[in-house]
Write a structure and sequence with these properties.
Catalyzes the reversible epimerization of D-ribulose 5-phosphate to D-xylulose 5-phosphate. The chain is α/β, with parallel strands linked by helices and about 220 residues long. It has eight helices and eight strands. Strand 2, helix 2 and strand 3 form a beta-alpha-beta unit.
């Protein structure tokens, strides 16, 4: 069954605790926590104090997506602040293996992320070491963008690679996800759907979860 990860970037931070409670009650599986530094992507978002506060009010799995330059400098802090899953961009470091092992040293699930313009084959040497791969289906940095259709081929390639190599990493997708694009991703092998605007624009959060899970 596909997992649903609402992106908190799209929630109402004035009532963050209430939003998180509603997300849990909707049947979502993960909380997706986007961190932007204004350098790797042209935007700045939430950081460590929000994550620490979030950890105090929920036992849901927190999936932290680091969209930051030189992530090795911050991995330890985000792991210690309460993340359960941490992903770093292939494009943001010259030492992706080291970054993945750094995450794993904290007993956290480690993921690698690629942007739409990065060939998925670039990941072939790291896939045996990761717990999940996050495919950006929009250019990272801003919510509400349209889904990039060509990214579906990356999901297909990853699904074939893990089957052919007897690997068990999960495939996560993020960007422009709704009930239609989500189904396309799942059909190609995606396991986790990150949904921001689509999820939080519903008055009833149960509705997008049901739709994304195909119920």
């Amino acid at each position: 069954m596909v997992k649903i990860a609402p992106s908190l970037l799209a929630c109402d931070f004035a009532i963050l605790k209430e939003e998180v409670t509603s997300v849990r009650e909707s049947g979502a599986d993960l909380l997706h926590f986007d961190v932007m530094d204004g350098q790797f992507v042209p935007n700045i978002s939430v950081g460590l104090p929000i994550l620490e506060s979030l950890r105090k009010v929920t036992d849901m799995t927190i999936d932290t997506h680091l969209m930051i330059e030189n992530p090795e400098q911050m991995i330890d802090l985000f792991c210690e602040a309460g993340s359960d899953m941490v992903s770093v961009h292939y494009e943001a470091t010259n030492h992706i293996h080291r970054a993945i092992q750094q995450i794993k040293s904290h007993d956290k699930l480690a993921g690698v992320v690629i942007n739409p313009g990065t060939p998925v084959e670039s990941l072939s040497q790291i896939l045996q070491d990761v717990d999940f791969v996050l495919i950006m289906t929009v250019n990272p940095g801003f919510g509400g963008q349209g889904f990039i259709d060509s990214t579906l081929d990356k999901i297909t390639w990853l699904d074939h690679f893990r089957k052919n190599n007897n690997l068990s990493f999960e495939i996560e997708v993020d960007g422009g996800i709704n009930d239609q694009t989500g189904k396309l991703c799942v059909d190609q092998g995606a396991d986790i759907l990150v949904a921001g605007s689509y999820y939080f624009n519903h008055d009833d959060y149960n509705e997008p979860v049901r739709k994304l899970k195909g119920e």
